[in-house]
Amino acid sequence: GSTLFVVPNALILEPHRFARFLSDNKISHLHATPSYLSAIDPSELVTLKRIVFGGEYLSKELFEKYKRYIPGTINEYGPTETTVTSIISIGTYLLNNISFQNTRAYVLDDHGTPVPIGVVGELYIAGAGLARGY
After folding, report:
1. How far lies 76's CA from each of 26, 52, 55, 92, 133, in Å?
2. Strand 87-90 and strand 98-99: pairing?
3. pLDDT tens-place string over residues 7-25
4. Nearest-angstrom CA–CA distance, 73 and 69
5. In angstroms, rounded to a whole number, what is the distance separating the alpha carbons of residues 68 and 45?
């Protein structure tokens, strides 16, 4: 019952016109990169019910800024070798809420040992969702 809008490239190059396009067309769901959305004031996006950030690093500040205006703000993560989205977070900045079926995510140190919560490490994704050869 919904409509998919493919936005013209020229419109994407002008973030304020793009925001107006979203509102004029009553678009309710958007998936975009944090760097692009950082150029748009979330208060202009009055019709959005859900926004999915993905494709690159998302700062906590930008996530929180959007969440104030759009409660359905989602942070997703996933490299291409895991078919783009592997982990999503709904309602919080940290990517610890939802993993997809048959997929596990680990944060490991240089020796392949899990690190405690809050400790920096490397993200490893395993399971059926991982492409062969990785």
Report:
1. 24, 7, 8, 11, 23
2. antiparallel
3. 888 999 999 999 999 999 9
4. 9
5. 12
- Per the CB < 8 A criterion, the answer to whether 50 and 70 are in contact is yes
State the average pLDDT over residues 50-57.
Answer: 88
98-99 and 122-127 as β-strands: parallel, antiparallel, unpaired?
unpaired
Closest CA to 33 of 71, 75, 67: 75
> Which tokens is 109 given?
């140190």
pTM score:
0.70
Residue 28 pLDDT exceeds 70:
yes
**Closest among 44, 52, 57, 49 to 18, alpha carbons compared:** 44
